[in-house]
Predict the structure.
Amino acid sequence: MALLIAAPFFILTYLWNRFGRLQEKEIHQKYGEFYKDLNLEQGRMVLLQPTWFMLRRLMLAVTVVFFNSTVIWQIAVIVTQIILQVNLLGWVKPFTDPQQYHMEMLNEVVIMFVLYSMLCFTPFVEDVSMKFKVGYVVCSIVLLYFVFNAVIIVQGTFRDLRVQYRIYREK
């Protein structure tokens, strides 16, 4: 467990100290995926994005395991993570592609909306019919967002296939 938690910090520290040499073949081959799609011109702070990405997943696992009987603490930890993520995205602007930045922000908004809806499934709301209605709304939001992301993926795939076909045809 300690190794899992230490790994993102080790990678961050290693790359932070070698920031000017990230394009060197050895470092790029070994750690290139860690900083892929990041706008390195923004400075070292962009390395916080992938580090925070990994830490969020670890914190989610820890939250689910250790706060399994207290839903309100689970929600509080995840809300805190979302707020920190939005602040990080707004402060550092880590991505080279503005569309990726907007998608990350939209992801956080949708997660926050669904998360706040989860409060309706706690003992704070006693009306079972209201819980069912909120459940249908949450399922609808998740389904719509899934379809939205699927459309973006399919469009990107067709765009890439069209480019590859043009390259193939020109040969």
